[in-house]
Design a protein that fits this description.
Helix content of chain A: 40-55%
Largest sheet of chain A: 7 strands, antiparallel
Number of strands of chain A: 7
Largest interface: A-B, 36 and 42 residues
Strand content of chain A: 15-25%
Helix content of chain B: 25-40%
Strand order of the largest sheet of chain A: 1-7-6-5-4-3-2
Radius of gyration of chain B: 20 Å
Shape of chain B: globular
Structural class of chain A: alpha+beta
Structural class of chain B: alpha/beta
Number of helices of chain B: 14
Oligomer: heterodimer
Radius of gyration of chain A: 28 Å
Distance between the termini of chain B: 10 Å
Number of helices of chain A: 11
Order of helices and strands of chain A: HHHHHHHEHEEEEEEHHH
Strand content of chain B: 15-25%
Chain lengths: ~375, ~400
């Protein structure tokens, strides 16, 4: 098996990022040989060990759902506040209008709390669940009275149960997002990779000249080499820019480069890029890991300014542009994407009427 | 220039827009002489594809004369008469090198969008929403064609536009549909959908050696075209039960290969009634984005060990896929957006040799300004409309 021999070679070369120590002890199971013989590969590596994937699958886009529930709360709350008798009638009961008005106020408060609670308002959505429980208790009590329309009561109860389920689902998903919490703290670890149809030498030498980086990294205004292993970085942010000096901490030609901002910089910025031959001789896999950590806690705002809502996605698009530069010599544009703003900005897919060397040319840097 | 622009569901307008310019070094600008409306344009027209923006220029089947080339175009020059392929392909990435042009890794500037929806992004496409890159389309007087050395085919003298225009999309698509069936001598191939792509799939099945080709549809004019143009046998699914008819025709074994040239907007007849209602209801509730009626039938009808070839366009998720039938009977499914540039030289050869005249699918010829009317009659299948060609 040719692959087996190759893997034996690569196993000794590849260090670091791929293999992580498992937090748990390996099972005591004894595994007999399996694939054997002189051509067989060595034992496999373990990826992503020590992490945790929540068993709760993402069933819904919880941030959008939260906003929907917020509007629902406000709408229902207004109805309960302004037309309590009508609401009672629809629910099939002779309700206490004061109580219904209070419930209305509660709903409106929940709705407002959801919109004021940031992108991921887990607490306010849980408060809706408490409200749902009160609603269910109220409806349950209404069953006892013979005056009430049981059919409508049942229908109303079914609806409240359905909404309760949505509230619980939403609140749970909002709570379970370790990445979200991290960006709240302002630490932006970005970890992305791309495969490029070129040799590690070619790819390494382009990246090693840091002045090339702004050409494909959207958030960088400029990088200037200021000395031996030293560079000055300027990042774009609305209302000004952020600057720091950095030094190369490790440089293994055609394999990896690491750099770090100097002590006392405005931003703690570090990064590592690794260049790995792709399997089958299919080019080079580039792994990029970046860390941005503004000291002193002036956090989320800066991060959002630099990276937008989706740092990982922005990085992946930056890497795609890098791939285009290496494989094609330029960045591919379309009429719809010629804005030069964030990568999510689109204009209608019709010509802008400008060509290379004019505005469109500038956008390509 | 004038161009046909999308403005919403069932709303396209021909209006004045800026002329295209060279933006990348391997671009060419083409002055368009003929352009067509595709069945997949109807998915945009009917609001099934997300990421459209008001003002987007539509159209991905077009040809004309090169009027300008970028600084790094070496194989084409102004004056060349060319057909343009609907997939935009760089020619230098892993997939282009394997001739899988519709999977180009570099030609979709909005790859991030498609990746979110599909897991990975396919290539950029002309005039087909921002999901495929937001490229201006070719239902216009001029178009910017990226990677002109890969994306254009030079047309020799003596061949009318109508004979070669369909090399841009539908002829290679039908051909790839038939090729994916791995047709052996003596095979029977059944094709669901007798629209233009289905017509070319049927004709290509014969070109690839099928002994028997059967077309399935409900519109008499399409069935007639299948019999007289593509020379296939036909079944009208509003009159006959397709599965049972195919079983009878093949002695109970089923066709060797089945081609789905229908895609996400499948209709159904009485026999499909409940199924069609189910799919429409789920679509309305946004729980299912596509209607796979033809696909389900193709799978059930296909013989054991046969191939189901899917060239009808799908965009999202389908429900009730007969996975049990598929797995237990060793079926193969092959599919994809057509790798046009892989086939078009060979197909041009068939045209030049007089083996096929692709213009047989054209039923309506109009000016570009009549595009809104063209879309309307094509969508409603009025006036026996099967294929509309527009001249700017």
């Amino acid at each position: 098996m040719a692959t087996g021999a190759k893997r034996q070679e690569q196993a000794s070369e590849q260090q670091g990022a791929a293999v992580e120590q498992s937090a748990q002890a390996a099972p005591a199971l004894v595994v007999k040989d399996g694939l054997t013989g002189p051509e067989a590969p060595v034992n496999g590596r373990e990826y992503g060990a020590g992490g945790r994937q929540d068993a709760l699958k993402k069933y819904v886009d919880e941030e959008r759902l939260a906003r929907g529930l917020g509007w629902f709360s406000i709408g229902l709350g207004l109805a309960e506040l302004l037309a309590p008798r009508g609401v009672a009638k629809v629910a099939g009961m002779r309700g206490n209008t004061t109580l219904i008005r209070l419930f209305g106020l509660r709903e409106i408060a929940s709705g407002i709390a959801i919109f004021a609670g940031g992108r991921r308002p887990a607490g306010p959505v849980w408060s809706r669940v408490v409200g749902d429980a009160l609603d269910l208790a109220c409806l349950g009590a209404a069953y006892a009275s013979p005056d009430n329309d049981k059919a409508r009561l049942t229908f109303a109860t079914a609806n409240v149960l359905a909404v309760t389920a949505l509230d619980v689902l939403c609140a749970r998903q909002l709570g379970a997002d370790p990445e979200g919490a991290q960006t709240e703290r302002g630490n932006v670890p970005v970890n992305k990779s791309i495969v490029i149809n070129a040799s590690p030498e070619e790819v390494y030498s382009y990246w090693r000249d840091f002045e090339n980086l702004p050409r494909f990294m959207r958030y960088l205004e400029s990088v200037k080499v200021t000395g031996e292993g030293r560079s000055h970085w300027v990042a774009k942010a609305p209302g000004g820019s952020v600057e720091w000096d950095a030094e190369v901490t490790e440089d293994r030609p055609n394999q990896s480069i690491s750099w770090r901002s100097l002590e006392g910089s405005e931003v703690e910025a570090s990064g590592t890029v690794r260049f790995e031959p792709a399997t089958g001789g299919r080019g080079t896999v580039v792994h990029v890991k970046l860390d941005y950590n503004p000291p002193g806690g002036a956090v989320g705002a800066l991060v959002a300014k630099l990276f937008g809502e989706d740092p990982d996605g922005e990085m992946q698009t930056d890497l795609r542009r890098f791939k285009q530069i290496i494989e094609l010599g330029e960045i591919v544009v379309s009429d719809g994407t010629l804005t030069g703003e964030g990568y999510t900005e689109q204009r209608p897919a019709q010509p802008l009427g400008v060509g290379l060397g004019t505005a469109a040319g500038q956008l390509q840097k | 220039m004038r161009a046909n622009c999308w403005y919403g569901k069932k709303d396209v307008r021909v209006e004045q827009v800026p002329d295209p310019k060279i933006l990348n070094k391997r671009d060419a600008i083409v002055k368009i002489t003929s352009t067509a409306i595709c069945g997949s344009d109807l998915h945009l027209y009917n609001g099934f594809m997300p990421t459209m923006q008001a003002g987007d220029i539509l159209g991905h089947e077009f040809m004309g004369e090169i009027v300008e080339v970028g600084p790094e175009v070496h194989d084409r020059k102004a004056g060349d008469r060319v057909v343009v392929s609907f997939p935009i392909s760089c020619g230098k990435c892993f997939f282009c090198e394997q001739e899988m042009y519709s999977l180009c890794e570099n030609s979709n500037p909005n790859a991030w969008m498609a990746e979110k929806m599909f897991g990975h992004s396919p290539c950029g496409i002309f005039g087909y929403s921002h999901l495929t890159g937001g490229f201006a389309g070719g239902q216009s007087e001029f178009a910017r064609v990226p990677f002109a050395d890969v994306g254009t085919l030079k047309i020799p003298e003596g061949l009318d536009d109508e004979k070669v225009l369909f090399l841009s999309d539908i002829f290679p698509t039908g051909y790839m549909g038939a090729e994916m069936c791995n047709i052996q001598p003596g095979d029977t191939v059944a094709v669901w959908g007798c629209g233009p792509v289905g017509q070319f799939a049927m004709a290509s099945a014969y070109l690839l050696g099928a002994e028997r080709v059967i077309g399935i549809d409900r519109f008499p004019e399409r069935l007639k075209m299948a019999r007289e143009g593509a020379k296939a046998d036909t079944i009208n699914y509003e009159e006959a039960n397709v599965y049972e008819t195919l079983m009878e025709l093949t002695g109970g074994r089923g066709p060797d290969a089945c081609i789905d040239a229908v895609g996400l907007e499948a209709h159904g007849a009485g026999a499909h009634g409940l199924e069609y209602a189910y799919d429409r209801a789920k679509q309305a509730l946004m729980m299912e984005t596509d209607r796979p009626i033809a696909l389900r039938e193709a799978i059930m009808a296909c013989r054991n060990g046969g191939t189901v070839s899917v060239i009808g366009v799908y965009g999202g998720l389908i429900d009730k896929f007969p996975m049990g039938s598929f797995m237990n009977r060793s079926l193969t499914m092959r599919t994809g957006q057509c790798h046009v540039q892989r086939y078009w030289k060979k197909l041009l050869g068939h045209i030049r040799d007089g083996e096929i005249d692709p213009s047989f699918v054209i039923t309506h010829r109009m000016k570009l300004d009549d595009a809104p009317n063209g879309f309307n009659i094509f969508n409603n299948k009025e006036d026996d409309c099967i294929k509309v060609v527009l001249r700017p």
